[in-house]
Amino acid sequence: MSYARLKHILAGVALEAIEHPGRSRAPQILLAFARRNRGPRGVPLAALARAAGLTSDDAERTLAATALFRPVMPDGRVALAAPFQPFQRYLRRQVARVMVALRLVSVSHGPAIPDEIWRAAALFNAGLFFECHEHLEDVWRVASPPERAFYHGLVQAAAGCYHFEKGNAHGARTLIEKAIAKLAPYAPAHRAVNLGIFIAGLRRVLARLARGGELRAAGRRALPVLPLVDAPSAAAQHSVHHRQEQVAVKGNLSSVRESPSSRPQTPGATMDRVFQYIDAHRDAYIELLRRLCRQPSIAAQGIGLEETASLVVGLMGEAGIRARLVPVPDGAPVVYGEARGKIPRTLMFYNHYDVQPPEPLEAWADDPFAAPIRDGKIYARGVADNKGNLVARICAVDAMLQVLGELPAGVRFIVEGEEEIGSVHLQHFVGEHPDLVTADACIWEAGYRDLQENIVLALGVKGICYVELEARGANRDLHSSVATIVPNPAWRLIWALATFKDRNERILIDGFYDDVVEPTDEEMAQLRRLAPLRDDAAQHRDYGLDRFLLGVSGVELLKRNLFQPTCTICGIASGYGGPGSKTVLPHKAVAKVDFRLVANQRADDIFQKIQAHLAQQGFADISSRALGNEDPAKTPLSAEIVRIVSESVRRVYHREPQIYPSMAGTGPMAVLNAGRRIPTVGSGVGYAHSNGHAPNENIRIRDYIEGIKHIAMVLHLFAGGR
Question: What is the pTM of this model?
């Protein structure tokens, strides 16, 4: 009954917010609570009030009106009422989904989206399937004959998802199959609904049903979204005349598009004209990035991935890039885009639209997905990693098409939604679609300015073997007085971890270094060129350190950082970690450890060696699980694309690039490019204090605009331009 009551209350909150957008603050304050709450002690009321932009009194009244919470405690904290405590995960997911729907309400409702479709999408995407079904049924009954089958299909889809969530497998399967049959003739889009994406989502539900298992346990991640085609694309379904008469709207590429014949084609400095266009449309390009950053896309939590992928497809379409979603079984869809060029060479861009979780939220100065501009910077989760780089590349294509009428060379975009959780399904995508990942060269997702404002280019990535280790003791936590006779899994895990590495940073796992290769003479020469240009002292001061590990500096620092593997304890959890004391003997201990790998090491091989090491050291009882394996990859310093990107840096930034043979971080370069021998260079719009993966992530606007120009120049030079 408590679960049903919680669902009913949240449905009421969502419906009120959708009916009266901007009036209700309940969703914002509920989301703030759900993200911050870690147990029965609750969350400070003052923190919730700040997050929702309310006074403490208004926040208290808003929370009380939901009937979900206990009265504010004497210490000023707010906690869920006892009946709802077991359903905190559901609360978090559902409120996050409501917020996605509210963003749809506030942003996407343009003149090309019919009112009844807008309302249906808001209800559906908030998880209000029953209410969506009732609304659409009223529309269907009065629809004209050509539209009746379409609306009836939407009615059946909403009803099918309602039955899926209730655990009625037979009803869900029957209704969703009928919905697909009715909607398919209207694909790929009709009445501003992106039916290609929607039907793919419905088919994933059918696949989940075919595998069986507990439906409710599948969670909302298995449910589709009802995606809308962006207003300019929807308008194109009516007439070319209507599209040409669109009024320019800030932050919309389609609205500022000119016909090629109307642009002056006088001879002159080609790239000067492109750069002038970028400067003239600076504000629109900034708004495009903020628009994408306002859409949450948290892979680790399964939040907003399909919505974001659909938005990326729309942004590419507005820029003149043919884009589509490529479904991936049990994973986030990949966005594929392409545009032909004047010559038959192809430059591929790899990016990702997913972001890290924004926690700890209290450390942010603003809502992580509000994308405010402050002091010449855009602040948002994912703005540096990796949405800023992605949108800069889309805008570069747009600018060149606007000025030149065609691209100098062809481009391909591969934009995945799971990079932040190890690109777990990218290998499947590559295997199923090898024709989509062929290119003459590739620009990787990231690059940055260092502390000295040097432009850093990276030609490779380290691999990773990310492992979760778990030690277990008794069948429950016990009083610590029995520690004389009951084993402590926390100690057991610590002893096991201590066998991984010695105090001189040497990893002790048998065979771990067998495949490690020394840098080539060419790579060492490059390190010697880089070392004098770095300020090691400034960097360790920036980290709050007196010196680096083992006292390394100069060439040795670079060699160690780029060409040596690591073993890093990323986190340990066991027993009690709250304020004050609690005398407890924990029943389990968990550690997360990552091993960064270098050339010729293989992640699967290292994982097997870790398991063998634990057994050899007497810790076979400690379970190990691989959470993400990726192999290293590198591009030679002599590759043509390295010369091209370097020359672009000189022309755009008026600086000599700092070319790193590899980066110390990891990405799926081996999956996407290494097997095809596609030379790859990483370049991007971040800077030394972008705070990637941390609170208050940001990029500087000037770096973003220069990044657009840089990619445009790369395309120009890649096609043989002078």
Answer: 0.68
